[in-house]
Design brief:
The complex is a heterodimer of chains A (158) and B (223). Helix content of chain A is 43%, strand content 17%. Chain A has 158 residues and is α/β, with parallel strands linked by helices. In chain A, strands 3-2-1-4-5-6 form a six-stranded parallel beta sheet, with helices on both faces. In chain A, strand 4, helix 3 and strand 5 form a beta-alpha-beta unit. In chain B, helix 2 links the parallel strand 2 and strand 3. In chain B, the strands form two sheets. A six-stranded parallel beta sheet of chain B has the order 3-2-1-4-5-6, with helices on both faces. In chain B, strands 7-8-11-9-10 form a five-stranded antiparallel beta sheet, covered by helices on one side. Chain B is α/β, with parallel strands linked by helices and 223 residues long. The longest helix of chain B is centred in the middle third of the chain and has 15 residues. The radius of gyration of chain B is 21 Å and the shape is elongated. Chain B has seven helices and eleven strands. Classes of the chains: A alpha/beta (158), B alpha/beta (223).
Chain lengths: 158, 223
């Protein structure tokens, strides 16, 4: 049994890419009372956010300084780039980290080799490809499905 | 004559193609990387004896097959800024390519690229804007040139009458950041900026600056 987590103070978050991950992350953080701004090139992508979403939506590319400024990056505490493109994610994250000095920057990189390179270069990264492979391997060898147990644990705690 | 470096060009669009053509005519050894097989074949046919490889310029395993570790220059010339940035960064970080040149499609990204370690970010749009601006302001010079990888620029500034520099001797002027007045253009004639030369209104100063921020230098001098 997990202790109920203390609500953390609200943070100012920018999310680049309103796909499945971007949208559900945005909804989660918004529901927890954080200030969320989502950037995507396609207006239609914002449909994923649903009606309840109270955050901001900016149409544009996350690799353009002026778009990022418009999204309020100068006051952001956290930044996540989760578009479909590895290179776009990397570039957006580097701009957030190097140009705007955002404290917490994380980026998704599908290509494990590229992920390693940019982790070495000082980016906070995650790679769904190697994470997925590791989970399946674990299930096959130990019989434990960690992804399922984690998700079940979380919904039980709610 | 110094030996010409081995050049890798990523992107066989118009820019990459004409660049390759130009360099081959000047006897450079080069490999052009193009991800579209049909386009690659067309380029090979057009340029004759050139090494065109089909692949992604941002894929490490592919780059390793291009002989990149002995390349002196990497030019990333695709139409996508993010791809150009990553190709150059990989070339530098993983294959120790000494000089990286990136085509910048969105001019806003020129400064960003410089900050993120690209030696020479080139934006055709920015160059054109500079030329047009110079044309409109009546000046006959390009407004600023980034000097190679040294992180320095040559900036030309037409001094307005209100500039603080007007009426001062060159020898008495200390420009911020140790910038140096290289030349004064007065009524179309170059004047060597010795310490005893008096700076006049409407002089055009050519300044060597240790920064790539051409606009900031211009502004600080004009005020």
């Amino acid at each position: 049994m997990r202790a109920r987590r203390v609500q953390s103070p609200p943070v100012n978050v920018i999310i680049v890419g309103c796909g499945r991950v971007g949208a559900s992350l945005a909804q989660d953080l918004d529901a927890k009372g954080h200030k969320v701004t989502v950037i995507d090139e396609r207006v239609s992508a914002f449909n994923r956010l649903g009606r309840e979403f109270r955050g901001e939506m900016i149409v544009g590319t996350g690799i353009d300084e002026s778009v990022l400024r418009r999204a309020g990056i100068e006051d952001a505490d956290c930044f996540a780039s989760v578009t479909n493109g590895d290179n776009r994610n990397i570039m957006a994250a580097q701009i957030a980290q190097t140009v705007f000095n955002v404290k917490r920057v994380i980026t998704r990189i599908y290509d494990p080799i590229r992920e390693e390179v940019y982790r070495d270069l000082g980016l906070e990264t995650f790679c769904p490809t190697s994470m997925g492979a590791a989970l399946i391997t674990e299930y096959f060898t130990d019989g434990v499905n960690r992804a399922a147990t984690t998700a079940a644990g979380e919904s039980a705690a709610r | 004559m110094t030996e010409k470096p081995y050049v890798i060009i990523v992107g066989g669009g118009k820019v990459g193609f004409y660049l390759a053509k130009h360099l081959i005519e000047r006897d450079y050894e080069l490999t052009l990387v193009e991800k579209d097989a049909a386009r690659a074949e067309w380029i090979e046919h057009q340029l004759g004896s050139v090494s065109v490889m089909v692949g992604d310029g941002d894929e490490m395993s592919f780059l390793a097959t291009t002989g990149i570790e002995r390349a002196g220059v990497m030019v990333a010339a695709t139409g996508d800024d993010e791809d150009n940035l990553i190709a150059c960064q990989l070339a530098k970080a993983k294959f120790a390519v000494p000089r990286t040149i990136a085509r910048v499609n969105n001019p806003v990204n020129v400064k960003v690229f410089a900050k993120l370690g690209i030696d020479v970010p080139v934006s055709a749009t920015e160059l054109l804007m500079g030329l047009i601006e110079a044309e409109l302001s009546g000046s006959e010079m390009v407004r600023g040139v980034n000097v190679k990888a040294s992180g320095a620029s040559l900036v030309d500034v037409a001094l307005p009458e209100t500039s603080e520099l007007v009426g001062k001797l060159v020898g008495d002027v200390a420009l911020p950041g140790g910038d140096i007045i290289v030349c004064i253009v007065r009524r179309g004639e170059p004047v060597i900026p010795g310490p005893g030369v008096l700076i006049e209104a409407r002089d055009e100063l050519i300044v060597y600056s240790q920064t790539l921020d051409v606009e900031a230098v211009r502004e600080s001098l004009a005020n």
